[in-house]
Every structure is written in C-alpha cells, then in structure tokens.
Amino acid sequence: MRLAAVFEQQRAERICKEIEEQEFEEAQVFLQETEKHLKRGKRKPILDGEKLTKQTLLEQAMSEQLKERQEQEKRLQKVAKTMNHMERAKREEAAPLIEAAFQRRLLEEKVLHEREQQLEVELSRQHHDGDLKEKNSLARMLENYSGLEAGKGYQVQENILCEV
Fold first, then answer.
1. What are the coiled-coil residue ranges (predicted)?
2. Can you give the residue ranges of every domain in the chain?
3. Each residue of 45-65: pLDDT tens digit?
C-alpha cells in the first residue's frame, strides 16, 4: 500500500513537471514571437531565476503594448501640436496676401459693376429713343387714319341707311 502511494505521488509529480515543462516551452515560443513583433528592443530582460509562465509573459507583453501605445500617442500629440503651429504661421503669413487679393477683387468687381451700369443705361436710352420714334410714327399714322376714318364713316353710315 505504501508503495502504491509513493508510486501515485511520483506519478503526480511527473505530470506536474511535464505540465511545467510544456508551459515553459509555450512561454519560450510566445516570448520569441513577441520579440519578433516588437519594433524596438526595449524589452525588459528576463532573469534566469525568474520563472517563465504564460501568465507572466502575457502580463509583460500587455504592459509593453500599453507603453508603446502611450509613447505613440505622445508622439502623435507632439506632431499634431507642431502641425497646428505651422498651420497658424502659414495663415498669419497668408493673411496680408488674402487681404490684398480681396481688395483687388473688390476693385475689379466695382469697375465691372460700373461698366455694366453704363451699358444698362445706354441700352435703356436706345430702347427709349426707339420707343419715342415708334410713338411718333404711330401718332402720324393715327392722324392719317383718323382723317380717312372720318370720311369713310360718313359713307359707311349712308350705305347702311340705303340698305334698310
């Protein structure tokens, strides 16, 4: 019986040792893969005395990823700040140029508006002169027509009376 208990204990120890070895091998593979994916070699060295387990490696990988993200975010913020400064400087340099272009465009539009107004006045004057000529012509025609009508009107009334 004692022999069976010792045998069971040795078996359990052997199984635990095999599991630890398998976890160690998996941790080594995971460690190699994470080192491949790291862009920079700022990895904290793992001491030989430190026990390598999946959990510790995962925790280290997560903390390194978090640090990397934070560093990238800081770099991005710095670049964004620099870009904002550059854009502001560019706007400040461009402001007088924009103002000059605006004033030039305003002057061009003013000249164009005055020219269009002059053309409009000239066109209106031409229409008015044409309308006056037509009015005078129609007035003369009306006088001639009225004179003829007056004579015809008498004849038309006689024709009506004669027919009755």
1. 62-89
2. 1-52
3. 554 445 666 777 778 878 888
